[in-house]
Specification:
The protein is α/β, with parallel strands linked by helices. Helix content is 29%, strand content 18%.
Length: 510
């Protein structure tokens, strides 16, 4: 009997659930809620049947369907890939039926942090100089400029500048000069060029690529200034001369960028990207709902929380449409779901290709199960808007952005949309960091937190030991304020963020 202090090692998450989840490794014979016993050893985070489940019958977790029994499942039997399968079912979208007004605190009562107020009124949490590339052909030169600037000593007299970082990518040419893929790249590049966490921007191109810098400048009304400069390798005269010219342009930015000082601003200036990666069976029980509570606190303080990863809300989208502020917002979310169904089909995939092998080893079996846990990051406030990838986020409150589930691509879109802080939950232990927006890592279980403590900022595994979700949510919110004010997150201390800029590539490469 694997029990401690007389307590069952299993959690039943809703009264209608016909499975429970192992809160720790449970041996054969461990007592389940309701009195039956486990028929086999159940790994940490995995599921066990609480009652007989007929072949083809739905399996429920969180009070929701996570799949259907491949074969008859006996009480006490381990429930995973061998006997649980993905299946479609009718969703009741109940548009806007659960949207409840939020009492946003008056600005004088809102929490505050120390941020960089920019000339256009937006607020940054960091003060980087960024080097953007229009095309992969200029990626190495951009990296050479950033590396040379950071080791030159030119930043020594400017403590308010966090560093020079190059944002390189693998596209920009060999693509159509219009259409969906081009528009995504355009929004992403403009979103970073205008991001409040970048005090200065240098954009470097090759010169002959499809994605022309001049076209971007004209489209968005970007002009050369002391904090925004552009150049191409071909016009400047090759690699060496471009590096030298780039360093000179950065040197010319230092005074303007370094003059920015942190000042007290309300928490309503935070746009928080909600993210999860390397999820496990406890993501939806500990870290994700705790982050959802932190998101609710931020929304009540006038801020913005951005849920994303459309494939990872698949099967839970009806929970979000019920919270949509109006039917149009809910229907826009469903339209994006249908786009994904068609997108995966034409690329000979399926929505259930996600979860990953690591997710499954951590106890997740189907995308329906993963999505129900992932959606918990969004808290409980109304869904105010649905955005396309890298679209500028304008509404306050809880919003959604259409992105892939692949973390670097997803966060790149959220940051391009304006997110100035990231909260990233993980159960398996994702090693991830972000520039220019700092990433706070939330561990779903104590064992992983202790194993990877140098990478994790907050342990949410202690929720299993009695810490309430409300206490943990408040802790996360306070950490968001601290990191927004300049405290370095663990991933920042390790130097992450230079290689995690990954724009979503959609369409043919020619």
């Amino acid at each position: 009997m694997n029990q401690e202090n007389g307590q069952s090692p299993f959690l039943r998450l809703a009264e209608t659930d016909n499975i429970a989840v192992a809160a720790r490794k449970a041996d054969e014979g461990a007592v389940l809620p309701g009195g039956t016993t486990a028929k086999a050893r159940i790994p940490f985070g995995h599921k066990v049947a609480l009652e007989a489940i007929a072949e083809g019958a739905p399996v429920r977790k969180f009070g929701q369907i996570i799949g259907f029994a491949k074969t008859a499942i006996a009480p006490g039997e381990w429930v995973h890939e061998h006997n649980l399968a993905m299946g479609d079912f009718e969703r009741d979208y109940r548009f806007s039926q659960e949207a409840r007004p939020v009492n946003v605190l008056p600005i004088e009562e809102q929490a505050t942090f120390e941020g960089y107020r920019r000339a256009n009124g937006r607020v940054g949490t960091r003060n980087y100089i960024g080097i953007l590339t229009s095309v992969n052909c200029s990626a190495s030169v951009a990296r050479f400029i950033a590396e040379a600037a950071n080791r030159s000593g030119m930043l020594d007299d400017w403590p308010e500048i966090d560093g020079v970082v190059s944002f390189t990518h693998g596209t920009g040419c060999g693509i159509a000069g219009s259409g969906e893929g081009f528009d995504m790249l355009k929004r992403t590049q403009w979103g970073y060029a205008a991001h409040p966490n970048l005090g200065g921007v240098l954009m470097v191109g090759l010169g002959c690529e499809v994605f022309q810098i001049a076209r971007l400048k004209e489209l968005y009304g970007l002009g050369e200034s002391e904090t925004f400069r552009t150049m191409t390798i071909q016009d400047t005269g090759g690699t060496r001369r471009t590096i030298e010219a780039g360093l000179e342009r950065i040197r010319e930015m230092l005074r303007a960028v370094g003059a920015h000082k942190r000042e007290t601003v309300p928490a309503s200036e935070i746009t928080l990207a909600l993210q999860c990666g390397g999820s496990d069976g406890y993501s939806g029980i500990t870290a994700n709902p705790a982050l959802g509570i932190a998101a609710d606190i931020l929304v009540r303080n006038g801020g913005t929380a951005v849920l994303a990863e459309t494939p990872e809300i698949y099967g839970a989208e009806h929970l979000l449409t019920a919270r949509a502020i109006n039917r149009a917002v809910g229907e826009k979310l469903i339209e994006r779901i249908h786009w994904w169904e068609e997108y995966t089909a034409r690329n000979m995939g399926e929505m259930n290709n996600n979860p990953s092998p690591g997710n499954k080893a951590g106890g997740l079996t189907t995308i329906l199960e993963k999505s129900l846990g992932a959606a918990a990051k969004g808290g409980s406030t109304p869904l105010n808007a649905v955005y396309e990838y890298a679209e500028l986020i304008r509404e306050k409150g809880f919003v959604f952005m259409d992105t892939p589930g692949y973390d670097p691509v997803s966060v790149t879109g959220q940051v391009a949309g304006g997110s100035n802080v990231v909260c990233f939950t993980t159960g398996r232990g994702s090693a991830y960091g972000c520039k220019p927006s700092p990433s706070i890592k939330l561990a779903t279980n104590t064992a992983m937190f202790e194993r990877m403590e140098e990478d994790m900022d907050i342990n949410c595994g202690d929720i299993l030991d009695g810490v309430t979700l409300e206490e943990k949510g408040r802790q996360i919110f306070e950490e968001v304020l601290a990191v927004a004010s300049g405290k370095r997150s663990k991933s920042e201390e390790l130097g992450y963020g230079d290689n995690e800029f990954v724009p979503w590539q959609v369409g043919a490469t020619m």
